[in-house]
Design brief:
Length: 439
């Protein structure tokens, strides 16, 4: 990588890690909110706290995380990526400060909504920056994915560790500090955002001034509608179906995973005192039972997400070697099988479940570089931000419904129905990959 590549990749790795640190710490808090609160006060009515209603609260933030990606994609083509990434980091810090002050689930919903709006601009901004500014694009996507997975895995792990010692509201406030530091770094970063985009010979003005590296996106509602129609008139429509299925599977399997695990053999809470030698317990006056407990399901969840680093890196490298359409078909096919066997493997014992967790963690994130690279293959550089805006509208906007679907199924049906539904999402994406390959 050249100097400009390194500067861009360094910034997007930092920001991507921050975004997913907050995104995947939320399910750790979900298990607390289910016991901390009894009702959700909506002024005109009150709702009981269940997996369905908490799933709806979480879906508010996750949906805005996706829905805001589309306007974010439009804006990034006009004002550039660095400014939006800085604003994203500041907004996320503010949202977790508010979360730490939340007296009830209504304010929790407001804080999650602010987080969703702030975080929504990152993916169109960061991925447009990678696709237009980095010469070694595949490697850039791989490192970008690795950083995201470090945030995805270490963020929940950090949250779980802090919750051993502090109340959840203080933990939420402490988590705001890294985003503030990252925003200060982003505000000072300098690089060429369009260094890797070839000049457009059809643009006479570009030729006259030596060759602009990319067009400047859409300038009006009419252009937005026209460019959107152009995107969806071609194969991008099928790519959009893939990313929607990816989001539904991703959010559906992760939102309540700690809660699903806590009732399984081997996931019983462990009192912190029991982990200390008897002599040290006596010295500190700590009981072997009672008090704060270590919850193994939180660490399984974090470990599964950390393993995704390997999946992200492998997926990013494979996009330079394997046709992306076949990569989508194969990786989503594997996710469908993993959903079908999850509960039988869990019933077989802790050892088999740990192995399955490693494989699931890898394949959850192998798919991401494939669909990110597919978007770059099927869209023009000048509206790349718009294209990634639609992509993450599908992944995180439509995909946010996966949390609501999971919560509703777990309230009114069974985990078996949930995993069968998830397998269906993955199967549709795999079939769509094959259709893209044949076209």
């Amino acid at each position: 990588m050249n100097r400009n590549d390194r500067a861009i990749v360094g910034l997007v790795m930092l920001a991507h890690g921050m975004v997913h640190t907050y995104e995947l710490s939320i399910p750790i808090f979900v298990t607390i909110w289910l016991t901390e609160f009894d009702t959700i006060d909506l002024l005109v009515t009150q709702l009981p706290v269940t997996t369905a209603t908490v799933g709806a609260v979480v879906t508010v933030g996750y949906a805005l995380f996706g829905l805001g990606a589309l306007p974010g994609g439009v804006v990034v083509d006009r004002v550039g990526s660095r400014r939006l990434i800085t604003a994203c980091l500041l907004g996320m810090a503010g949202s977790f400060l508010l979360l730490g002050l939340s007296p009830n689930l209504a304010v929790v919903a407001l804080a999650l909504a602010l987080w969703g709006i702030s975080a929504s601009v990152y993916h169109p901004a960061g991925l447009a920056l990678l696709s237009k500014g980095v010469e070694e694009r595949g490697t850039g996507f791989a490192y970008h994915g690795i950083a995201g997975n470090l945030g995805i895995g270490l963020g929940p792990l950090l949250t779980a560790v802090l919750l051993l010692f502090f109340d959840w509201t203080l933990v939420a406030g402490l988590l705001a500090l890294p985003a503030l530091a990252a925003a200060a770094y982003a505000a000072r970063a300098r690089f060429d955002e369009s260094a890797a985009v070839a000049p457009d010979p059809a643009d006479s003005e570009s030729a006259a001034d030596g060759g602009s590296k990319a067009s400047s996106g859409v300038d009006s509602l009419g252009e937005f509608v026209a460019e959107s129609r152009r995107l969806f008139a071609g194969s991008f429509l099928l790519v959009f179906l893939v990313v929607m299925c990816s989001g539904l599977y991703y959010r559906g399997v992760l939102t309540f995973l700690p809660g699903l695990l806590e009732g399984l053999p081997g996931f019983e809470p462990v009192p912190l005192g029991a982990l200390l030698p008897a002599g040290l317990r006596d010295l500190l006056g700590v009981e072997a039972t009672g008090g704060r407990t270590l919850k193994p399901e939180n660490y399984f969840y974090s470990g599964l997400l950390v393993v995704g680093v390997l999946g992200q890196y492998a997926g990013g490298k494979l996009t330079d070697r394997v046709p992306v359409e076949y990569g989508i078909a194969g990786s989503f096919g594997a996710l469908a099988v993993l959903a079908l066997v999850f509960l039988p493997v869990a019933d077989a014992g802790l050892g088999p479940l740990l192995v399955l967790g490693v494989v699931l963690g890898a394949f959850l994130f192998v798919v991401q570089p494939f669909y990110q690279a597919t978007v770059a293959e099927y869209t023009p550089a000048g509206t790349r931000g718009l294209s990634y805006g639609f992509t993450y509208l599908g992944v995180f906007g439509v995909g946010a419904l996966g949390g609501l679907v999971a919560g509703t199924i777990l309230t009114y049906a069974t985990p078996a129905v949930l995993f069968l539904t998830l397998a269906g999402f993955a199967a549709v994406a795999a079939a769509t990959g094959l259709v893209l390959a044949r076209r």
